[in-house]
Fold each of these.
Amino acid sequence: MAPRLVVRVGPEDFDPAAELARLEALPGGAVASFTGLVRDDGGLEALHLEHYPAMTERQVGEIVAQAAGRWPLLGLTVIHRHGTLPVGARIVFVGTASSHRTAALEACAFLIDWLKVSAPFWKRTIRRDGSGAWVEAAAEDDERAAGWTRE
Amino acid sequence: MAGLAILYFAWVRERIGRDEQRIDHPGAETTIAALLDTLAAESPGHAAAFADRSRLRAALDQRFVPLDTPIGEARELALFPPVTGG
């Protein structure tokens, strides 16, 4: 059976509890999730996230289809925000529901690892002193994502 | 002849000073790298944006491709830094 898919990309905030409740309402018995937030690294006021809408839709759709094909999932939720997000704000949510604990956990990790390297988003820092800079990509993120194709 | 839309994101967009430009299609055989050489002559901003190719990524019709890829029949080229979402 095809899993229940929820994919949302937009500036709006989301409620992790409500998203989890929707996944828990499925009959699987196992739900895993990841929530990414704007981290205060000392002096940061906000992150501005820019994206490439047409490509985001395509890339997120492909990642979701890969996860749904690889693990026996009953539900899969991906939410990614863009715009200006202050310290502590939620950026991204991935949730999975399955009858199998390992499927839920692995699919969740796969989804966030691949979102990081293949969804066309760019973060710019906005610091309290008025300065700012584009965030550099981390090589370890590429390595983590590549790990899923070696297995 | 149909054109090619070029989209710029993040610091590539900032250095060039615009988020999009349209050009005559350079031909299917032309690679992205060759097109960058031509565009770099257009303004100091273009030259600055394309100076370090190792930090530049590209997509043709919304798919990631290496810079040595021929443009082919694509209608949209996007140029940007490595992505930092999630």
Amino acid sequence: METVQIRAGELLLRPWRPDDARAVHRACQDRELHRRVSGLPWPYEAAHAEAFVGGLAPRLLAAGTALHLGIFDPAAGGEHALAGSVALNAVDRDAGTAALGYWSAPWARGNRVTERAARALLGWAFGDGLGLARVDWRATIGNHASRLTALRLGFRMIGEEPADGGAGRERWLAALLPGDLTAAGTDVPDPVRRAARTFGGAHPTLPAGALTLRPPEQRDVSRIVATRSDPEVVRWGGVPQPYTETEAGRHVGRTVPYRWARGTEAVFAIADEAGAYAGSVDLHILPGDPAVAEVGYLISPWARGRGYATAATRAVCAWGFEALGLSRIQWRAEVGNVASRRAAEKAGFTMEGMLRQALEINGVRRDCWVGSLLKGESA
Amino acid sequence: MIVPTIPGQGVRLRGFARRDVDDLLAGYADPAVQRFLPPLPVPFTRAQAESYVSDVAPGMFAFGGGLYAIADPATDRLLGGIGLDKVVPNRGQAELGYWVGPWARGRGVATAAVRALTEHAFHTGMERIELLTHRENPLSQRVALANGFACEGVRRGVLPNRDGGRDDLLAYARLAGDEPGPAERALPDLPGGELTDGVVTLRPLVPGDVDFIAELHGLADVVATTVPPVAPSRDKILRRCACAQSHWLAGERADLVIVDAATGTPTGDIGLYYQEPSTGQAMIGYSMMPAWRGRGYPTRAAQLVSLWAFAETGIARLIAGALPTNLGSQRVLEKAGFKREAYLRSRLPGNDGRRNDDVQFALVAEDLLTEGSRLDG
């Protein structure tokens, strides 16, 4: 592959040189960078940087199989001139395909450096540069910063794949065709942006009056089992029985963190004044409309009659409008589930109607009430 | 290289022979074969055909796959070709491709040949056979489904086409351990190919409907009821018409044209979107040309689609939404037996980041049983 230099506004993209090693080494001391980029050694030594910029990158470039470019902002001084890296890996000129990768230096984040650099590189690679027909993107599920950049570039999510060997972390998979590449300044809708910021961070703990909403923990398992085996919860919530510590352990250790990482659902344990599990409340984003979510809650049998569901719903909805950019939070419950309806109404929900046979609980289609709380409304 | 002969139902797979050259030339001159086999050189010369039967086809066996002639078992005449390539030995995986000459179509040759070769491959150690079909090639998708291949997704831009662009391919696959028999279809074909009550006829949308759909969905009041309310581009309409049959075969949506039964004139469209197969819930939506409004056609169309859905599919609940201001559509739904169930605030994306309310209607099977169908409109 020929040596390339690409301009992206004030940014310059060029192949790595041996004297970039110091700056690369410094950038790669950042833990956040390692969380986002897979395959980098840790601790990241000076020798790693030297081997990469002076050995591996030029070798791959000469072989024509990968194009690793440094992103430089000449206006920033010294080592801070290095803003990040953008690369086309697994370049296959015959098939017209490659895979995009990028990282940004910790001091250069927040002004879409990688997005601007990647857009310039992709424009070049789809055009006269490499004549590519498709570029793939992969990221560990939960790397919402990278996903947001990919979405802004026009990538379309295709699905998920297990990591190499099946044992590692699962990855998102997306592809970009030449006509998909967006113009500079393209952005995604506000709820998508907010959800990426929220789900890309740690699962928070939220105050809810005297209660606290927090991620469920392993110490909650016995109380979760007792709650999800309660006849009222089983009857109205359709929890498959028997529900044992195995299911509860999987719920805490897998289901909740997976859904958080995917950005599809936020599940909180409702903790009482003593910090003990007293129920659960969640927001599930509707597939196909990032501005709408559905709220669900269940209260442990020993904690009922104290307004916990109302307090938890108020708190999680206020958080959802702000942190997820929701416009509408929907509530549905089987007709006759008066306790759930009272809690929703007290939390400010407006009843909107009755949907016949719209829920399937314990294998039977059931009529359900539907109501909503809109952004700007409160109890 | 001795190519095994593989028997099938009304076909026999065998090695290519010099006597196949004329039929091979005729098959490869067919526009449909040329369209869906873009690696095929056009024109395909006699010299290339001769080299194909003597060298290229036998040579394919060296890579673990193979290329067979599909022959008539009675006359031995060439009917088409079929092969396995892109073999990944450590995955026990290969890709199947085929063509059938125009003289041999319409009698299940492709389905029988695919079945014979797939079973042969599984018997000889393959675990997974892929069949990549063009989105706009519903006949090939039917062959895959008839042989129990499951649609796994789409390979975007994977096939260079003859215009310098790239086409998507649908990825179908069958595993050695899959249940025998054809793949189940969530949306089966219409009985007799259409639905009619004598006044309106519903027939599947086809690629030739592009101009009609473009006119219909360019109307300001039709755009206003679209979600989100944006007129579709010409390109989007082209794709919608070209892919309508593949969407139907995949069980995603049934796109129909509402035709005036007396004159055969297209008057509107109605679609059934199987949005929630897990809960048996589907949605319908429709649009009418202004000249044909006020005759109860959409009511009739909604009733025909509902009766078909409850009788022929696993759909248990049909929903439809209307903007609060769209009283005409609400009246249509009520006349078709749908019940108004809820007024959902801010349910739909509108223009410029605004949201629209949605009046929700639904029809469940019992509604038809208790009230009977009202095909008088």
